[in-house]
Hints:
Shape: globular
CATH topology: Alpha-Beta Plaits
Bound molecules: iron/sulfur cluster
Mean pLDDT: 94
CATH architecture: 2-Layer Sandwich
Amino acid sequence: MTYIITSLCLRDSSCVDVCPVECILPGKPIDEWPLYYIDPDTCIDCGACVPECPFEAIFPEDEVPAAYTAKGGEFISRLGLTEHYEGANEHGEPVILDCVRALEPGEVVDLTEDIQSNYDYFTEGPGYKALDM
Ligand code: SF4
Ligand code: SF4
């Protein structure tokens, strides 16, 4: 198994430093890979990253919600969406995303769609190269 970062991620980077095996990477280029991603072959399923995420974006793979009910006001970040988000990461650096959408209260979203893209980042995406650096 692995843990999965879902499209609730807004790249604030709080999860990165707590990972004991350094397997959480920011997606690059950001306009193709807007989330942070967890290398499934390196993750040891410790769960340390979960409570660090202010957006509650991280789940064990088998607990990623197929029907996530939005509180309202949170964003999802997915390619093809066109709303704009400006925030900052935990280091105070700006985070700008143009592939987001604000969720309505009670809106139900399937977050399991994010599982495959996490795997893809480390196979067909640039993640495998990043791990070698
Ligand atoms: S579950 Fe543990 S090993 Fe896996 S990404 Fe999170 S902190 Fe890293
Ligand atoms: S802490 Fe959450 S929002 Fe921040 S980079 Fe990690 S998964 Fe994304």
